[in-house]
Every structure is written in structure tokens, then in C-alpha cells.
Amino acid sequence: MIKRVPHCSHWGAYTLLVEDGSIVGVEPFALDPDPSPIIHSVKEWASPRRRVLKPLVRKGWLDKRENSDRSGRGRERFVEVDWDTVTGLIADEIRRVSAQFGNASIFGGSYGWTNCGRFHHASSLLRRMLNLVGGYTAHVDTYSVAAGPVILRHTLGNEDACNGKASSLETIAQHTDTLLVFGALTPRTAQSEAGGIGPHLVQSYLDKITRRGAKIIHISPLRDDLPEGTPADWWPIRPNTDTALMLGLAGEIVKAGRHDTDFLARCTSGSDKFLAYLKGSSDGVVKDAAWAAPITGLERQQIVELSRRLVDTRSMLSVSWSLQRAHHGEHAFWAALGLAAVLGQIGLPGGGVGYGYGSLGGVGAPMNLSKPPAMSQLNKPIDSFIPVARITDMLLNPGQPFTYQGETRTYPDTRLVYWTGGNPYHHHQDLNRLARAWMRPETIIVQDPMFTATARRADIVLPASTSLERNDLAGNWRSNYVLAMHKAIEPLGQSRPDFEIYKAIAEQLGVVDGFTEGRSEMDWIAYLYNQTRDDAAARHGFEMPDFETFWQTGHAVCPSTDQHTYLAKYREDPQQHALKTESGKIVLGSQTLDRLGYDDCPATPTWMEPVEWLGKAASPRQLHLISHQPAGRLHSQLETGPASLALKRNGREQARLHPADAQALGILDGQTIRLWNARGACLATAQVADSVRQGVIVLPTGAWFLPTGEDGLDISGNPNVLTVDIPTSKFGQGCAAHTCLVNVEPYQGSAPDAMQAYDAELAELTA
Ligand SMILES: Nc1nc2c(c(=O)[nH]1)N[C@H]1C(S)=C(S)[C@@H](COP(=O)(O)OP(=O)(O)OC[C@H]3O[C@@H](n4cnc5c(=O)[nH]c(N)nc54)[C@H](O)[C@@H]3O)O[C@H]1N2
Ligand SMILES: Nc1nc2c(c(=O)[nH]1)N[C@H]1C(S)=C(S)[C@@H](COP(=O)(O)OP(=O)(O)OC[C@H]3O[C@@H](n4cnc5c(=O)[nH]c(N)nc54)[C@H](O)[C@@H]3O)O[C@H]1N2
Ligand SMILES: [Mo]
Hints:
Elements: E1 3-9, E2 12-19, E3 22-28, E4 56-58, H1 59-64, E5 78-80, H2 83-101, E6 106-107, H3 122-131, E7 137-140, H4 147-156, H5 169-175, E8 178-182, H6 187-190, H7 202-212, E9 215-219, E10 233-235, H8 242-255, H9 261-267, E11 268-269, H10 271-279, H11 289-296, H12 300-312, E12 315-319, H13 329-343, E13 352-355, E14 367-368, E15 384-387, H14 391-396, E16 401-404, E17 407-410, E18 416-420, H15 424-427, H16 431-437, E19 443-448, H17 453-456, E20 460-463, E21 472-476, E22 479-485, H18 498-509, H19 512-516, H20 521-540, H21 547-553, E23 555-557, E24 560-561, H22 568-572, E25 586-587, H23 591-596, E26 623-626, H24 642-645, E27 654-657, H25 659-665, E28 672-677, E29 680-688, E30 696-698, E31 707-708, E32 713-714, E33 741-746, H26 754-765
Parallel strand pairs: 6-18, 7-15, 8-9, 8-12, 9-10, 11-25, 12-13, 18-19, 19-20, 26-30, 27-29
Antiparallel strand pairs: 1-2, 2-3, 4-5, 4-20, 14-24, 16-17, 21-22, 22-23, 26-33, 27-30, 28-29, 28-33, 31-32
Helix pairs in contact: 2-18, 3-18, 4-13, 5-7, 8-11, 8-12, 8-13, 11-12
The protein binds ligand MGD (2 copies) and molybdenum atom.
């Protein structure tokens, strides 16, 4: 008999068909008009092949604990231990580091997407446990957005505009005449939503926008950042130069005297400084179309015409998160705000600026108004943190200062790293630099269902079960569905649900009651669901089904709105609805940044050359690397599932480049190529296509890192052996992955199949 099991992942809801304890099929969620193909890859989780199946400890660490030879990480064999032993070892280690060095020496800031379940949420639960025993060093912001929220908190008073609370896509579909898309607006990325998603709606909004006849100008190095079938003018901009285009447009408008002086006076502060910069009175350079054209590689006359159109029509700027994942990313977001302020349409339906449309499926979608389900991490006993992408800097520079949001703080002396639900050997930049820093901590614990590159480089590996093997629920503040995640199969090997793992450690640490609060798995799931349900009833008079009905149906709808115009109230009455900024207004000239005087984050939206960009290429043979999100998987998850494998060729990730570049470099479609720079090298299969701008090469993230040979050539195609590990600026300290120049050449040597080599490495480590 086939059992139908409702379940959910970050890429959407689905029904698992289960027979005799194994998954025999996957059906999309009936209410989803545009389901993600990745749902069919989840069967891969049920295969033991690349799973961690038992608790393991590296031989050298088991012998010598904190005095082990750490160069054994990733090379030395693992030894099997039982659960009691391993949780005891971990409890001892937490106690030792806490007593000898203090809890700031425990890095629990472990970043990563884990699975979408809100209860077994691996990193929240880790923090919950550590907060009961004195705390840990945390992280702030995300790899997704860091420069962005830092500058928006400063200039708009909060990060709503980039966190799903800008104007809804429905209002854009209804009112916008000119839509400027910077970066992407595509189901490729909108497939995913942190915490799951019910219906995928981005394509239907694009269809609506198209039907109404809005003019779309698409500004991106990649044509298919807008899906085929969405009519748009494609402006293939040089990567990392959008700030110059935005400022050129704004300057052109100011030059024509068509800027909204009333809006600037009523709703912004420091606009005199901004206008002075645009007019060139501060630096002698007028920012206009003629100035922006050679920087961006776009046509001067087109920029002039667009600047007029923006003033003449209801205009909306859509800015992808990717634009701030680059050196000086703060200023790409700020310049967009500056341009929108000059246009003066902020707060009008279909006008203004919003960040992250399409970056996740819930951004701009009907906004959940109730409190989403989330596990409490309890109170933090200590206040130690790093900006999330400064992990390597932290490990290399204990005791050294760093700046963040205008404050100066100190990196802790990290002795113990506990990583769960994330894969830094996928997500961090300059992986060879991370590998050097990885030698520093005395102990590294990794908890993951899969034997990732990070797990291989741990001292202790804990087998977490996947969401398929336990009950949970999905939901988040951006999407208006709560989704049931029923257990489909038994845990593989000796793996355990995350909650059970921490519970066992908490027991050894003497804090189990505080950790569980006496609730079981199903108690917690009902408790979290009822928090959302009660909140919906109390604040919105909205009746959600009772828990049993929800659990049986598999989903429940939350109160939501698709009619939201960002800053509408503020626009009407800026005094009454003052923003939480230094002036109470939208900041275009910042007194704080003026005082701080950072050379890489000036006090008004400013174009600065990034460390690496086409304007600095040593020769025409150097290309700008865009390492964007993979279409067929979520980051490194389900890398070996069918949706991911379908986009590989010859067993490797594909790197897309323009036919003219391919010809100049002697590269043929389908050929193995080597991408390299001073930081590292990797292989990929060349895909020659004119959908990418000349001078740009695109290699998606997420291939399973597999360095080989003396020089560490990565044979899987992981772009993070190439990317720069620098902060976006001293102010935001964000990830700058999209800033990167590479050299590319046909690969002459022979290279093994990446997956076979990956499996062989695993077999050796666990022999
Ligand atoms: N070059 C470049 N690099 C980038 C980016 C880029 O644009 N360019 N983007 C960055 C961005 S935006 C992000 S968000 C990061 C993503 O980086 P990560 O979030 O680290 O990537 P994932 O592959 O999703 O890692 C999640 C891990 O959780 C594990 N996991 C899944 N389910 C469970 C579970 O139930 N329990 C436990 N304990 N573990 C589980 C998975 O097996 C996987 O190893 O990458 C960043 N890196
Ligand atoms: N299928 C799938 N979906 C995902 C993810 C995934 O791993 N897989 N990851 C999710 C996560 S964690 C996040 S944070 C979001 C990220 O969402 P985004 O940041 O929007 O996604 P990216 O793919 O990094 O970048 C989108 C596009 O921006 C363009 N771009 C890059 N640099 C520039 C630039 O300087 N100027 C301009 N104009 N364009 C530029 C690139 O062509 C790229 O294709 O995606 C989410 N969605
Ligand atoms: Mo992200």
C-alpha cells in the first residue's frame, strides 16, 4: 500500500509516496502553480551512499584531544564511537573550553540553511543548547545579505526593504509602468525560500506585469536572469558597476532639473551632499550618462532616454540581493535608494525601490502577517559575535580588532567550532585561505546528514537525520503558508534528529530540562503551530485550523496581504511616521559615515572601483566571474540529485562564457577548462552561449569541493576556490563573492570524474 506523506523543503511543498518504508515517488503540492524540479531530488537523502551513518571521531583527536596534530583533518581516518561516548566527549570539550578560555572561545555562529523544519532547526537548537551553558560567539547578518541590511538600517531605519517588506509584487503588477530590474527576477532563485514555501508565484507576477504592458529594462550580465518569455530590453552591464549607472541616471535627472525637490526636502536628509556629488561640485566630476557609459559598458544615449522615462512614468527599481554581494555592495543598495529619492516616487503604489524580488520566493509575495513558527534560542548570556562572512579572519586573527556598523570590536580566541546545518567548504570565499585558518581551532565538531567537505575536515562528525526521517513544520514571515512535514522513513544508520542529538548533549551538560522544557517532538510542533495560530487570531481575528486538522491536511493558510506599498504612510506624513535613522528621514548624506571617515564607505552614495572588475583586468583574457545560485539544487544540497546532475556535463559543473571570449581563448563548447587566479584553480565544462555578456564567465555555486594534487586543483567546479575573501566595506563587512577576476584556459591534463573521486575520498576516510 502506498502511503501519501505531506512534506516540505526550502524549494517547496510536496507529497511523498512511501511504500514498505521507502520513497517511491514525489508529487508537487496541489496548490503550487510552479513547483520546483528539486522536489524530485529529495529521494537522494534516503540513499545511504553519501550520508554520515554513525558518530565518528578522527583518530588523532581521539588519541590526543585538543593536542592533536590538526593537519590530520580531512586526511586522517575516522573511528566509530557510540552515541553515549560521543556526546560525553562533546560535553567535556564544551566544559573545558568554557572553563579555560570562556564561552566566547566556542564558535556556535555556525551559518547555514540546514533543512526548512522550524523545530529541528539545527543551528537554532545549537544556540539554544549553548545559551544554557554560558553562551557562544555568534554571527550577524547572512551570506545572502549583509552589506545591504547594514546600509538600509542606517539609511531607512530598518532592513524591511530588503527583507520581504518592500512593496508587494501585486502592487507592482497593478501600478508600475517602468520596471528596472537590476540583477535577476527569476524562478531560478525564487524556487527557494528559507523555511519553505507553498505556491511559487514569481512567474505569475512576471506574467501579470507583462500583460499590463509595463516596460522592463533588465540590467544584468546574464540575459536569462529574467526568464524567457518575459519581454524586456536587456542591458548587459559590466558586473559591479550598477552604482555608476544608478548615479548616472540620477545625475542626468538632476542636470535636467527634473528631480523631485519637494520629496527630497520633506523626506530625506543630506540630499544637498548627494546632489553636490552628482553635480560634481564635491569632486569635480559630473555624474551623468556620459560619465556612466564607459564605466558600465552601456550606451550614453540609452541612459539619457531611460532617465527621462523614469521621471515621466511610474517607475520601480528592483534590485537583486546579488548586487550587494560584491565589494562596496553597500553603495549599490544606497545608490538605488538615492535614485528612487531623486525620482520622488517612494511610497506611491508601483513606485520607489525594493530589494530582493525573486532572490527568494517569498520576497514581494503575499506577506504573512502572523508570527511565523520559530524555536526560541533563549537569552544570550554573552555578547560576542562576528559579521558572518568574517569567519576566516576570526580564526586567523584572535584578539585583533574589526569594525562593524561603526563600532570597533575584537575577534575572540576560537578554540572550539561546532558547525551544524551549514557547509562553509561550499559557502565561504577563498576556500584555500579558509583551509589555512581551519588549522587553528583545537576542536571542530560537524553535525550534518551528509558527508560534506566540511564534515570530512572535522574532528567529530555527528550523523543528523534528514527531515524525511522525523516530524516537523515549515513556515516563515515572508510566506503565507504553514506546512506539515510528516516523517516518511526511519532514520538511516544510527542517525538521529537534531533535537535528539542536542538533548543527549544537554543531558550530559546537566541542562536537559531547560533544553526540552519537558516537550516531545510532537508537543513542540503543536506548540509552535499554536503560537502562529493564536497570534493570527489575537492580532488579526483570523481563524487558522486547529492543530490536528492542520496536521492531517498538511497545510494551513496564515493571514496575509498582497496590497503593500512600502513607506506609503511615511510619505504622507514624515513627522508622524519618522524613520529610525539619525535624522528620522531617509539618509542620503550621512553624518555618522562622515564622522567615521571610512575610505571604502563614504557618507553619500558613491561609485568606487571594486578591487577586481573588468576595468582592472590585466588583459582582455581575464574574465569577471559570477558565481550565482545553482538552478538545480539549493547551494551544495542534493548536489548528486537528478535536478543538479541534469545541469552538469561530463561529470562537472558547467561554466558559461560568450562565444567571442571562447574563440579568443581557444575554448570549445563541452571542453574541460581550468579557471584560475592567485587564490586557486578549478575545473569546469565550458558552455558557450551568447546569453552571457562578453568578458563574463558564470559558474554556479555548490559543487562539492574536491581539491586534488599538490596545487589543490578543485576538480568539481567550486567557484569559491577563486572568489575574494574581503569585506564589502569596513561598515558592512559582508560577503563580496560576486567581485572576482579569473583566467580561463582549455585544460590539457587528465582529470578523474569528480563524483567518483569524491566517493573514493570518503571510502578512505571511513575505512
Ligand atoms: N561564490 C559564492 N558563494 C556563495 C554565494 C554566492 O553567491 N557566491 N552565496 C552565499 C549564500 S547567499 C548562502 S545563503 C550560502 C549558503 O551556504 P550554506 O547554507 O552553508 O549551504 P547549504 O549547502 O545549504 O548547507 C546546508 C547544510 O545543511 C545540511 N543539512 C540539511 N538538512 C539538515 C538537517 O536536518 N540537520 C543538519 N544538522 N544539517 C542539515 C546540508 O546537508 C548542508 O550540508 O552560500 C554563500 N556562498
Ligand atoms: N535554485 C536555487 N535558488 C536559490 C538558491 C539556490 O542555491 N538555488 N539560493 C537562495 C539564496 S540563499 C539566496 S541568498 C538567493 C540569492 O539571490 P540573488 O542574490 O538574487 O541570486 P544570485 O544567483 O547570486 O544572483 C542573481 C543574478 O545577479 C546577477 N549579478 C551578479 N552580479 C551582478 C552585478 O554586479 N550587477 C548586476 N546587474 N547583476 C549582477 C547575476 O547575473 C546573477 O545571475 O537565492 C536563493 N535561491
Ligand atoms: Mo543566501
